[in-house]
């Protein structure tokens, strides 16, 4: 499907956790618990929004789409990572590696695009409240979600095809916990590796910075509008509706900027592995916590959902 290049390498060896031989069982238990919490947290958000009619609004529709992309993103990477922590043979087939890269980039960039859409939703709600129902109609919201998923798919396809069209002739040890772009580019051979690396880097950084810039512009307008509100209660209510989204944006783009904008100097395997854990396990783990704790409406609805389930089971 991806038109992969025929290379002498038929599989890759993932050696991301090899510097921590005595900690792998502890890492397995820790990451397993964080993965299960991520799944349960996002599923609880989806169940709560689905069951609460008061939450059937554009903001929570986008949150549902964000939770789905987060579930799929972690599913593309974490189960394989957990299996490798318990195995001594950490090989992954060439096509499986390409598939993991495609899905991780697809869902990762979909996540970024959805965060941008959520920022636009808050901008319209606070800066243009009278036009909110027109601009954020059900059809318009569905289009924004669809374009976010389509954009993520295109990004995943472009990056994966660019890298896996390169020949891989020599060593096959990937110095990472998964099939990530930068470690694989270091293993590629041929005359145009540097050109592809530059192109992939520019595409990823441009997409991330573009999303980040749109979110910053949205919040600049939001803050300017809030500061002009006459009542302190109105300002506080407006800020509270943005708090959870803004916190997730800071966490998401904070870790992403470290990954893509870091120095090109020599990096240790331990540092690369721990950095990979932050955006593979830690960021998805924090996201449902932030949304459930910082959003009062969602928090109270989740409490009602959990209590109703417990009462049904007890009866």
Automatic annotation (TrEMBL):
Q: Which Gene Ontology terms of cellular component type are present?
A: plasma membrane
Pfam families in the record: 7tm_4 (PF13853)
List UniProt keywords, sorted A-Z.
Cell membrane, Disulfide bond, G-protein coupled receptor, Membrane, Olfaction, Receptor, Sensory transduction, Transducer, Transmembrane, Transmembrane helix
What membrane topology does the annotation report for this chain? Multi-pass membrane protein
Localisation: Cell membrane
Q: Which residues form a coiled coil?
A: none
Q: Which InterPro entries match?
A: GPCR_Rhodpsn, GPCR_Rhodpsn_7TM, Olfact_rcpt
Mind telling me which SUPFAM superfamilies this protein's record contains?
Answer: Family A G protein-coupled receptor-like (SSF81321)
The molecular function terms in GO held by this entry are: G protein-coupled receptor activity; olfactory receptor activity
**Membrane-spanning ranges:** 25-47, 59-82, 102-120, 141-164, 200-227, 239-261, 273-293
Keyword presence, tRNA processing: no
Q: Look up keyword Cytoplasm and say if it applies.
A: no
Which residue intervals define the domain G-protein coupled receptors family 1 profile in the entry?
Answer: 41-291
Please explain the role this protein plays, according to its UniProt record: Odorant receptor.
The UniProt entry, under PANTHER family, shows: OLFACTORY RECEPTOR
The name under which this protein is listed is: G-protein coupled receptors family 1 profile domain-containing protein
The taxonomy runs: Eukaryota, Metazoa, Chordata, Craniata, Vertebrata
By which gene is this protein encoded? LOC102436386
């Amino acid at each position: 499907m991806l038109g992969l290049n025929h290379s002498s390498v038929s599989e890759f060896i993932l050696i991301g956790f090899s510097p921590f031989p005595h900690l792998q069982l502890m890492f397995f238990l820790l990451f397993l618990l964080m993965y299960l919490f991520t799944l349960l947290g996002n599923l609880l958000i989806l169940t709560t929004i689905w069951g609460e009619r008061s939450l059937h609004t554009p903001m929570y529709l986008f949150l549902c789409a964000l939770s789905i992309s987060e579930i799929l993103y972690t599913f593309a990477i974490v189960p394989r990572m957990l299996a490798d922590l318990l195995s001594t043979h950490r090989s992954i087939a060439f096509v499986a590696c390409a598939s993991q890269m495609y899905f991780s980039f697809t869902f990762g960039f979909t996540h970024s695009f959805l965060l941008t859409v959520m920022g636009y939703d808050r901008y319209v709600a606070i800066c243009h409240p009278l036009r909110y129902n027109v601009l954020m109609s059900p059809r318009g919201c569905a289009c924004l979600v669809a374009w976010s998923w389509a954009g993520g798919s295109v990004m995943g396809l472009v990056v994966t095809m660019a890298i896996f069209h390169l020949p891989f002739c020599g060593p096959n040890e990937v110095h990472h916990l998964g099939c990530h772009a930068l470690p694989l580019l270091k293993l590629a051979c041929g005359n145009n590796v540097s050109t592809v690396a530059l192109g992939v880097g520019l595409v990823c950084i441009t997409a991330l910075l573009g999303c980040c810039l749109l979110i910053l512009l949205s919040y600049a307008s939001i803050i300017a509008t809030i500061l002009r509100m006459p009542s302190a209660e109105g300002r506080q209510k407006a800020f509270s509706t943005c708090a959870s989204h803004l916190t997730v944006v800071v966490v998401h783009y904070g870790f992403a900027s470290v990954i893509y904008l870091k120095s090109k100097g020599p990096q240790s395997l331990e540092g690369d592995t721990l950095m990979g854990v932050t955006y593979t396990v830690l960021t998805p783990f924090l996201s449902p916590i932030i949304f459930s704790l910082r959003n009062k409406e969602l928090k109270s609805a989740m409490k009602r959902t959990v209590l109703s389930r417990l009462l049904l089971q007890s009866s």
